[in-house]
Amino acid sequence: MLDTVPIQSRFLDHAEYYARWSGLAIGIVVAQQLIAMHSGDIAMPLVFAITAFGLCAVGGVLLGDALTLRPQEAVRTASLAPRLVRDQVPPRMAPLLLLQAASLVTLLVIGAVTASSDPDRTVRAGHVLTITCEGLRTSLGPWPGLYYSGPMFAALAVGTPVCVWALRRIAHGPGDDQQRRDRAWAITGAWGLLVSTQVLLVVVMIFVALTEKACAGPLGAATIVALCPLGLLGLFTFGWSLVTVVAPRAVDDETAEDGVLDDE
Length: 264
What we know:
The chain has 264 residues and is mainly alpha-helical. It is 69% helix and 4% strand.
């Protein structure tokens, strides 16, 4: 039997997925172009690429959410219990992402406070860490000072309020419970991509800077050890966020199955 469903109708039924996947694809292409741009500083193209990828992922998910078809109900009912944002987001991953975001902001603030200017490149203020190594002043970098953290702060300042607004819109808007959860999980995953990629980049920058000339000393070694769990958390949340953006219902179903097993 021939498929009589109009192509336009089938496209609209899956438009949110196409938008999410397109956001990821565009983010990858833009990131590749930014990495390949000519620059005397290898770290700054990475910063632009990471922030651009995260913002494209957020933009794709928000566009997909705007294109999501709402279920047409014959009789609309309203619950007396208010719907809260925390009831729509992933109960286990949301606290981890918030902890990761707080750690990222803390690292960026510490990096901005401790960064200094490279004597050889006075136009790039706040992108190296200056220490005394064997009686000589030595610059370690790239260091996540204001020179590098500026684009990261800007991306967080743009992406975070927009995602919070979208989550509030979902929680108080129309739709069934499953659809609201899928949409909220996708937005949480997109914000997780924005945060986790920046965390990984900052951890790598600090690791490279502190191990470049073996001048960091015990404090530098302790810093590297302390950052290892944060780097592992960033890898885990990046993978979870990517899967959640691509197929939020699949992640939700796995969690539901875990809950059934726990009940048994």
